[in-house]
């Protein structure tokens, strides 16, 4: 020990530590530098890979533009198939990305679901809720059971494996359906029926698939026959899981959507509201799936319906509405572009050839299993609702139930399962094969089917009206933005006047063009009259509800007024207007009460005086 009280043998020890620090720090710095360099290289490689994907998409887009009315998404898929064939023949890796279960469900699906739900008219959805729910829940279950039991004989699978295949392939794909029906310009009600089912049945399908996969793994590992595993208690547990998952997703979607809606109501900043919408898109899905373990699909769909309807109506300025929906449309387009190229390019061509026999057997059986659900359940739904689903619509519901990204995501989820490798390879090949037929053959023949069934798709007049009305909304938003900028002093008065004069001139020309188009197309005018009337009635309903909450009117009077608005909405949803060009075709409750009180409020008096 030295004079300071420190033992001398410690000195070499301390020195040895000090001499080792520098090399350690140097090694750490080298490792950090290598990691950063590798990360930068990875980012650059990913950017190049994405650039290749979008160059392919641009080439397809140019081809579609030159050829004419050819579904863009199907063209992307065929281009992807071509890449897959070239990769198989030459061994050259042209498409560097690999699709995975998580990539589809967590990254690609939420924006497509949200955009599809946000652009769905909630009134049309509600009016067709009975047939939509019939097909989305019991319809899917019936189809799975039918294909599962027949598949035992057709494919030689055990019962559980056959049911598992049915649960993978039968959920209809909102990604494919939404893209195709928008491009074809299908009638609004038909689109609502097919898209609504596709948006809802995936949550049910995922729960059924998860339960069957667990049973199949248990049977595979223990050698227990399916009959012993499919006990009434297990079946009851699965049904309860479906109900909890679906109901929980509904609640999460409502709560998350309403929270964002309340923030938007008190906010007028379109860029921030775009960010909030994107947070809700992924947040509702992740919140439901990973924290509450309920259906993220249903949560995202419900949140999208709420923001796209009530949010757009009451919480967004014209500029915000334009910005938010343009952003959602762009995100959906980019995601669709990637996913359709990816599905085609990652299709296992060798496996499709190897298992061509089972695939060819599966294609008609999948259609037959869907038919077993579509026609009987739609007939039952027609008995309990006033709005019947016509037979030609039922044919489209059968053929238009496309199977794409959702079945493929579920099939890719088999890789992490405890099932045997050869069995997984065969199941994946069958799912990819049926999905390829569904997307290409059914997708390409959809326009011809609509024509043969006499179902009118979007006409040139309607497309022109959409163009004119879209531009009219854009000029409204531009004028509103210019007014706000001028009020804040961000643009001088003379510049504001120039802007205003230019946009007002364009608005006058647009109004004249729209008026002329309406005069030449009375049916188009009638459709737009019904759409506008529906929106105004929704505003009426909201104002009455606000008055009841504020105590301005008593609940009994408010309920009577709400009942009347609902009656008008029912008429409008059935295609019957409550007004015409000169007078109202519906006598309100307040008029009868005022007349009984002795007040002269005859709605026909003004027309008679003219």
From TrEMBL:
The chain crosses the membrane at residues 48-67, 74-97, 129-151, 157-181, 239-261, 290-309, 330-349, 355-375, 396-414, 429-450. InterPro entries: Cation/H_exchanger_CPA1, Cation/H_exchanger_TM. Keywords: Antiport, Cell membrane, Coiled coil, Ion transport, Membrane, Sodium, Sodium transport, Transmembrane, Transmembrane helix, Transport. Residues 55-450 form the Cation/H+ exchanger transmembrane domain. The keyword Transmembrane helix applies. One of its GO terms (biological process) is regulation of intracellular pH. Its main location: membrane. It is a multi-pass membrane protein. It is found in: Cell membrane. GO terms for molecular function: potassium:proton antiporter activity; sodium:proton antiporter activity. One of its GO terms (cellular component) is plasma membrane. It comes from the Archaea. It holds the Pfam family Na_H_Exchanger. Residues 496-527 form a coiled coil. This is Na+ antiporter.
């Amino acid at each position: 020990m030295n004079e300071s009280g420190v033992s001398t043998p410690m000195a070499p020890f301390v020195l040895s530590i000090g001499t080792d620090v520098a090399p350690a720090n140097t090694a750490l710095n080298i490792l950090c530098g290598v990691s950063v360099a590798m990360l930068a290289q990875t980012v650059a490689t990913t950017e190049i890979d994405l650039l290749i994907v979008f160059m392919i998409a641009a080439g397809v887009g140019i081809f579609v533009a030159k050829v004419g009315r050819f579904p863009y998404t199907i063209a992307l898929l065929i281009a992807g198939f071509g890449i897959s064939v070239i990769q198989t023949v030459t061994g050259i890796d042209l498409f560097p990305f690999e699709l995975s279960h998580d990539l589809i469900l967590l990254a690609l699906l939420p924006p497509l679901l949200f955009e599809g739900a946000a652009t769905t008219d909630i009134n049309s959805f509600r009016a067709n809720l009975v047939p939509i729910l019939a097909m989305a829940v019991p319809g899917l279950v019936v189809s799975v059971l039918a294909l599962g039991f027949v598949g035992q004989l057709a494919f030689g699978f055990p019962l559980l494996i056959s049911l598992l295949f049915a649960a993978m392939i039968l959920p209809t794909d909102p990604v494919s359906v939404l893209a195709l029906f928008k491009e074809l310009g299908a009638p609004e009600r038909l689109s609502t029926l097919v898209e609504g089912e596709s948006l809802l049945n995936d949550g049910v399908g995922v729960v059924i698939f998860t339960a069957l996969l667990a049973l199949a793994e248990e049977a595979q590992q223990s050698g227990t026959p399916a009959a012993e595993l499919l006990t009434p208690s297990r079946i009851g547990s699965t049904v309860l899981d479906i109900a909890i998952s679906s109901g929980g997703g509904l609640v999460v979607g409502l709560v998350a959507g309403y929270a964002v809606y309340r923030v938007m109501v008190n906010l007028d900043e379109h860029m921030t509201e775009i960010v909030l919408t994107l947070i809700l898109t992924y947040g509702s899905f992740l919140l439901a799936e990973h924290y509450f373990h309920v259906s993220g699909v249903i949560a995202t769909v419900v949140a999208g319906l709420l923001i796209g309807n009530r949010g757009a109506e009451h919480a967004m300025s014209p500029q915000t509405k334009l910005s938010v929906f343009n952003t959602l449309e762009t995100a959906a387009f980019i995601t669709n572009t990637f996913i359709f190229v990816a599905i085609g390019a990652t299709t296992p061509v060798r496996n499709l050839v190897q298992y061509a026999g089972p695939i060819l057997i599966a294609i008609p059986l999948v259609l037959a299993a869907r038919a077993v659900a579509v026609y009987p359940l739609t007939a039952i739904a027609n008995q309990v609702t006033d709005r019947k689903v016509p037979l030609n619509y039922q044919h489209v519901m059968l053929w238009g139930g496309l199977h794409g990204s959702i079945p493929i995501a579920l099939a890719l989820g088999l890789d992490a399962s405890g099932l045997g490798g050869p069995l997984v390879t065969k199941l994946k090949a069958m799912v990819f094969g049926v999905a390829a037929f569904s997307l290409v053959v059914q997708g390409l023949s959809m326009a011809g089917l609509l024509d043969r069934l006499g179902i009118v798709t979007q006409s040139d007049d309607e497309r022109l009206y959409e163009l004119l009305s879209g531009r009219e909304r854009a000029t409204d938003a531009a004028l509103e933005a210019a007014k706000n900028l001028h009020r804040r002093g961000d643009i001088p008065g003379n510049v504001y006047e120039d802007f205003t004069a230019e946009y007002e001139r364009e608005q006058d020309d647009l109004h004249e063009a729209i008026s002329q188009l309406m005069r030449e197309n009375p049916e188009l005018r009638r459709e737009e009259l019904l759409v506008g009337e529906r929106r105004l009635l929704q505003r009426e309903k909201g104002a009455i509800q606000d008055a009841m909450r504020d105590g301005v009117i008593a609940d009994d009077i408010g309920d009577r007024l709400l009942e009347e608005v609902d009656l008008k909405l029912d008429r409008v949803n059935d295609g019957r207007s409550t007004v015409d060009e000169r007078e109202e075709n519906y006598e309100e409750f307040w008029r009868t009460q005022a007349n009984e009180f002795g007040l002269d409020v005859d709605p026909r008096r003004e027309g008679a005086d003219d």
